């Protein structure tokens, strides 16, 4: 439980007592060395058209769930259904896509992973939790639950914790944790400060929305904490029927933001108490209204203060979901965007609305600090059924094919842009997903609002295997190739240097002022949420040389607070003047599920451009690095604050 007791990062009750203590510890020779460095990332390899989509093949299973496991491997997890590819004498419902070779292999997912949740542990092992009972044709219950009967030979997945270790050899497989979960369909998973995972909510048997007979309004942990029993959650208890896949983020304060139906709370895991924030305006954002949601970049400029963005969804009243006259496919989606900065205020603020109303929209964090919105439709909701008013089985309609980009740094009124972006080739309705790839493109797949594998000329929204790559506008620009990135990042600790050459700075030393070093966790994509998705900018300064347009960028480790980015694998990028390097997969934290070491932050040298020696009027002067958004504060102030903070955490 130690992981729950991290002090608020900037809590400074302290300074007097712990200051001396910490200095003493440092003086006693706390020697900390940085992790091994990585080879410089190269250039992207694909040939698609920037701003457009390209179909790269057909997936073996429908991409109900999707995540990037290594730099090369994307994992797909589907529900049990009649996918034509077979494995072990039954249809496959999980697979691995190797990006470089564009080859796929089926994987045995063991139990029915229908509407499971997922996330990655601090030691790099992925979890996939919950699911449905064993099924047969059409998603109907199978006559046995132990995997022994056809046609699908699947076992009950409702209490399964499926695990997949980090592996790039193309031969790793899912295995079951011997410790089961409680019965949960549509749970949310969020990784915590010690690299363990909280598993929240869900229902016991499934359905379009939840009801009190099968609700599981509680949370539990993996690895289990205490006696392993789950803990009741008042917000989940009070937000039926739209309390499935609760929208959940670990906040830098250490609290857990939970948004469910119209309600919002911050959960304090040290006391298991919830603090109510305002209701969310305009629209329901959780499944099945399925808005796009994302924590905006955490940066030195915003002092690592979290703001969460919610866009789209549907204004459906609590008693409307199950009303006989509610026919989702004709019900208009919402264009509303709102944002919340929960560690500062419990009130939502309006944000520029989406250009088009949208449900089932995914927000994908790009390494240039912007956010891609794609997938979904303009009418209806997530979910499917055999209703006469459904479109086939789909509860959603009118696909929105146009992607749109949000720039958190743009002025109000112009945050959304479709400039240079062409439409997707494929409607992406219920059960579609998307994830950022290391080269900055986005893999988009899925769409299957059907009880089983369903294709044919008469099917409006078939089981969709066509898999696309979306290319950012800068895809084919020459990417920076930073030398000296680390393979592992600590919370506080020694700074490190990366080297950018003249090509990396596009021949202009002034571009060093626009260098952003960031760590992105792309997350586990399902139901238009990317559980765990997050962007954290590392603090940095530089010594650059006008003589030869090169720079040494001085970079801090992560801030001394694992609630800013929980331990586990993530991608590191170096972006110069808006052009990101190819990302490298690295480990955040100790690589262990354990309370994370918190180290003093080493101050960075002031930013400096060394002028041309020949006196030919080269540029000079310092300055802060470009921030992704928000106001600038001086590099040295950040360094000082970080130092004070680390002193407290380290010395307490
Ligand atoms: C950064 O945030 C902390 C609270 O987390 C606050 O105490 C501090 O004053 C902030 N610093 C700046 C420069 O805004
Ligand atoms: C990660 O931790 C979990 C829980 O303790 C364990 O089951 C799993 O084997 C670990 N993974 C690795 C790669 O050590
Ligand atoms: C729903 O439709 C599917 C496919 O058409 C069918 O197999 C299934 O039996 C139906 N379920 C119910 C409950 O009617
Ligand atoms: C660039 O110039 C600086 C200062 O003259 C020098 O220290 C550095 O080694 C040079 N870098 C390269 C790559 O030539």
From TrEMBL:
The keyword Membrane applies. Keywords: Membrane, Signal, Transmembrane, Transmembrane helix. Residues 479-588 form the Galactose oxidase-like Early set domain. Residues 1-29 form the signal peptide. Residues 155-473 form the Glyoxal oxidase N-terminal domain. The chain crosses the membrane at residues 633-651. InterPro entries: Gal_Oxase/kelch_b-propeller, Gal_Oxidase_central_sf, Glyoxal_oxidase_N, GO-like_E_set, Ig-like_fold, Ig_E-set. This is Copper radical oxidase. It comes from Coprinellus micaceus (Glistening ink-cap mushroom).
């Amino acid at each position: 439980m130690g992981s729950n007791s991290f002090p608020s990062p900037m809590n400074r009750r302290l300074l007097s007592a712990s200051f001396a203590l910490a200095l003493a510890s440092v003086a006693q020779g706390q020697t900390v060395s940085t992790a091994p460095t990585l080879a410089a990332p190269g250039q992207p390899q694909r040939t698609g058209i920037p701003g457009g989509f390209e179909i790269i093949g057909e997936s073996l299973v429908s991409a109900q769930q999707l995540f990037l496991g290594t730099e090369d491997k994307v994992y797909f997890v589907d529900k049990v259904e009649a996918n034509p590819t077979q494995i072990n004498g039954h249809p496959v419902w999980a697979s691995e896509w190797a990006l470089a070779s564009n080859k796929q292999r089926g994987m045995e997912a063991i139990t029915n992973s229908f509407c499971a949740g997922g996330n990655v542990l601090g030691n790099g092992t992925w979890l996939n939790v919950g699911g449905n009972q064993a099924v047969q044709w059409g998603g109907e219950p199978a006559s046995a639950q132990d995997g022994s009967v056809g046609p699908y030979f699947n076992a009950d997945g409702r209490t399964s914790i499926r695990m997949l270790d980090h592996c790039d050899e193309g031969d790793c497989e899912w295995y079951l944790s011997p410790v089961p979960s409680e019965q949960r369909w549509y749970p949310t998973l969020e990784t915590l400060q010690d690299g363990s995972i909280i598993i929240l909510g869900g229902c016991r048997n499934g359905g379009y929305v939840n009801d009190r007979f099968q609700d599981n309004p509680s949370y539990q942990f993996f690895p289990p904490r205490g006696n392993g029993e789950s803990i009741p959650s008042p917000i989940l208890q009070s937000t039926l029927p739209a309390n499935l896949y609760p929208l959940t983020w670990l906040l830098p304060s250490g609290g857990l933001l939970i948004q469910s139906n119209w309600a919002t709370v911050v959960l304090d895991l040290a006391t298991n108490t919830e603090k109510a924030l305002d209701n969310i305006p305009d629209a329901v954002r959780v499944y099945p209204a399925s808005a796009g949601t994302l924590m905006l970049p955490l940066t030195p400029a915003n002092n690592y203060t979290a703001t969460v963005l919610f866009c789209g969804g549907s204004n459906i009243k609590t008693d409307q979901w199950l009303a006989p006259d509610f026919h989702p496919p004709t019900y208009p989606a919402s264009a509303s965007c709102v944002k919340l900065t929960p560690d500062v205020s419990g009130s939502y603020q309006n944000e520029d609305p989406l250009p088009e109303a949208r449900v089932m929209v995914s927000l994908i964090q790009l390494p240039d600090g912007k956010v891609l919105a794609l997938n979904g439709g303009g009418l209806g909701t997530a979910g499917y059924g055999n209703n006469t008013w459904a479109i086939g089985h789909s509860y959603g309609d009118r696909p929105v094919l146009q992607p749109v980009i949000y720039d958190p740094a743009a002025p109000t009124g112009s945050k959304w842009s479709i400039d240079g972006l062409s439409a997707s080739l494929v409607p992406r309705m219920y059960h579609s997903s998307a994830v950022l790839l290391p080269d900055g493109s986005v893999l988009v797949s899925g769409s299957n609002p059907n009880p089983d594998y369903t294709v044919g000329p008469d099917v409006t929204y078939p089981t969709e295997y066509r898999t696309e790559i979306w290319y950012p506008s800068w895809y084919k620009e020459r990417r920076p190739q930073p030398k000296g990135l680390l393979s592992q990042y600590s919370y506080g600790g020694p700074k490190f240097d990366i080297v950018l050459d003249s090509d990396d700075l596009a021949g202009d030393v002034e571009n060093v002022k626009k260098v952003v070093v960031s760590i992105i966790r792309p997350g586990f994509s399902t139901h238009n949420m990317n559980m765990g998705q997050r962007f954290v900018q590392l603090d940095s300064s530089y010594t650059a040389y006008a003589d030869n347009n090169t720079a040494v960028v001085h970079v801090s480790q992560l801030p001394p607070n694992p609630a800013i980015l929980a331990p586990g694998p993530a991608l590191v990028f170096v972006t110069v003047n808006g052009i990101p390097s190819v990302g490298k997969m690295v480990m955040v934290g100790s690589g262990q599920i354990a309370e994370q070491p918190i180290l003093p932050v080493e101050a960075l040298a002031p930013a400096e451009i060394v002028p041309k020696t020949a006196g030919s009027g080269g540029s000079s002067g310092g300055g802060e690095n470009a921030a992704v958004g928000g106001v600038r504060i001086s590099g040295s102030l950040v360094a000082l604050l970080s130092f004070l903070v680390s002193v407290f955490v380290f010395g307490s």
